[in-house]
Amino acid sequence: MASSNPEVTDVCAVCGAKSNLKRCSRCQSVWYCSREHQSQHWKHHKKTCRTKGAARTDETAAGKGHVSNDPGQSSSAVDLLERGFDERPLNLIKPCQIRNKDLDDVARHSAGRLRQDGFCVLDGLLGDDEIDRLLEDVRRVDGSGSMKAGELAGGRTSGEDKEKVTKPAVRGDRIVWLQGSEPDYPNIGTLINFIDTLVGKFNRHFEGETVVKGRTKAQVACYPGNGTGYIRHVDNPCKDGRRITALFYLNKEWDVQTQGGNLRLFPGDKDQYLDIAPLANRLLLFWSDRRNPHEVQPANDMRYAVTVWYYDAVEREQAKMDKVHEDMAKIRGDIALLELEVAKAEKERVASELEKKSKSAVEKLSEEELQAFACMVRGHPDPSAVLTEMGLITSIQELLLATLKDKGQL
């Protein structure tokens, strides 16, 4: 959902709430007070929801094929709900078989492929024994119970936990995040260090187009089979700083024809696609942003991968600053609401005190005094005007006239 400042007339489409509203990030025309209400309303809203400024095709509305005309589509949960997996036949690419394992040469080759094609596939970087040890670590992680269902993030960054939801039909993996220094999984740490070293050499070949600095934790992912996958999405649709996706596969003797689980990449043009089989000892690198929508097609067997995202220094710093501004705007909004609530409460308190004092003042009037007031206002076209000229405040005027009427003196 996209944050905004709703007008007073805007309300949640589900419950009618008027506060803390966010609107549909696609059509910008419907408001919700929570992610839960947006998801709940989607089955109705999807019939009319349209990307702002663009119409979707019939194929998109039906949820078939690779269903977005926008290669930079959002990855939010609601935007993915109606999509289906691309059902076109396999179009497997031939990877680069690494013979010269000098990392400087590998880095030069990889950076060149990224700049030319937007992606690079490398095979044979590690030895068979290393792959076996890595696979043992990953299986031990999977068996530890620490893996959780992969979540779909909403909002500008993945830091908004309350915006995250799980939708197994959209994303069916189990994941855990590792720094790479965990003593129980030393071989995963070795892999992360290896990829860090390789990607760290890219900057000299990017000629300033991007400057890689820093990374996320490593995501160890398992698709448990049974047709689980991840519908077409973009890793970084919102400029959160992630520039390079590095995916390392660990699936030995994998037959993509029968076991599925291929990563389908849609580089550049929306009608083109390429398939990468998730074979052990294969490293896939691609730009994480809107240039590379991709999906994990349904896997029929246990499928493992380790993914690390590397940051572009400039974009990451800008994303941090944007997040600070967003947080400050939210804080200012919260303070303004609090001030309004305090002012309202104070106004109500003052009104209550004034009403009590006015009631007390009228109750203290004698019968003679009440009769005197009655004589002054009786028959006058505007009794309140008479009392105003006497300097009586509105609350006393109202109580006094009500009392005179009750006593039959008006």
Summarize the structure.
The chain is an alpha+beta fold and 410 residues long. Helices cover 38% and strands 18% of the residues.
| CA distance, first residue to last residue | 61 Å
Q: Hey, roughly how much beta strand do the residues contain?
A: 15-25%
| Regions with little confidence, pLDDT below 50 for 5+ residues | 52-75, 154-159
C-alpha Rg, in Å? 32 Å
Which structural category do the helix and sheet elements fall into? Answer: alpha+beta
The whole-number mean of residue pLDDT values reads 84
How is the main sheet built? 9 strands, mixed
Query: What is the number of helices?
Result: 12
SSE topology string: EEEHHHEHEHEEHHEEEEHEEEEEHHHH
Number of strands: 16
Helical amount among residues, as a percent range?
A: 25-40%
Shape: elongated
Walkthrough of the structure:
- The two termini are 61 Å apart.
- Helix 5 packs across helix 6, helix 9 (313-363) crosses helix 12 and helix 11 packs across helix 12.
- The strands form three sheets. Strands 4, 5, 6, 7, 8, 9, 11, 14 and 16 form a nine-stranded mixed sheet that branches. A four-stranded antiparallel sheet has the order 10-15-12-13, with no helix packed on it. A three-stranded antiparallel sheet has the order 1-2-3.
- The chain is elongated.
- Residues 52-75 and 154-159 have low confidence and may be disordered.
- With 410 residues, it is α+β, with helices and mostly antiparallel strands.
- It is built from twelve helices and 16 strands.
